[in-house]
Amino acid sequence: MRKDFPQSKLQRIEQQVANIEMVNDQHLTQKIGSDGAQDSLAEIIFTLAEHPGIKDVFFTCTAVDQAIPGLYTRKNVTAFKIVLADGRER
């Protein structure tokens, strides 16, 4: 696993909420810029929300402009598209 990307750790799932700790959250602020931080959080939200038992994602991290801890749903990242391996969008 590359250590120069933000890393997350699933703490628990309770009442359809996945609780995620951003392990090296300094990467969200110092290493990848605001777009990279938003992309990282969106990837986690989209990936976890694919599971039928997860509706929301709660992030624990240091609050910065690019990444604010709290509860997120797919509605928070509607500007992103899901592109499947075969190129189809969803």
What are the SSEs and their pairings?
Blueprint: E1 8-14, E2 17-22, H1 26-30, H2 33-49, E3 56-60, E4 70-72
Parallel strand pairs: 2-3
Antiparallel strand pairs: 1-2, 3-4
Description:
It is a single chain. This protein is an alpha+beta fold and about 90 residues long. It has one domain (about 10-75). The chain has helices at about 25-30, 35-50; strands spanning about 10-15, 15-20, 55-60, 70. A hairpin with a 2-residue loop joins strand 1 (about 10-15) and strand 2. It is globular and about 35 Å long. The termini are far apart. The model has no long low-confidence stretch (mean pLDDT about 75).
Count the domains.
1
How helical, in percent, are the residues?
A: 10-25%
Q: Give the number of helices.
A: 2
Number of strands: 4
Radius of gyration: 13 Å
Indicate the mean pLDDT: 77
Task: Characterize the main sheet.
Answer: 4 strands, mixed
- Flag low-confidence runs: none
First-residue to last-residue Cα separation: 28 Å
Structural class: alpha+beta
Strand neighbour order, sheet with most strands: 1-2-3-4
Q: Can you write the helix and strand succession as a string?
A: EEHHEE
Broad shape: globular
Into which percentage range does the β-strand content fall?
15-25%
Quick recap:
The protein is α+β, with helices and mostly antiparallel strands and 90 residues long.
Keywords:
90 residues, alpha+beta, four-stranded mixed sheet, 2 helices
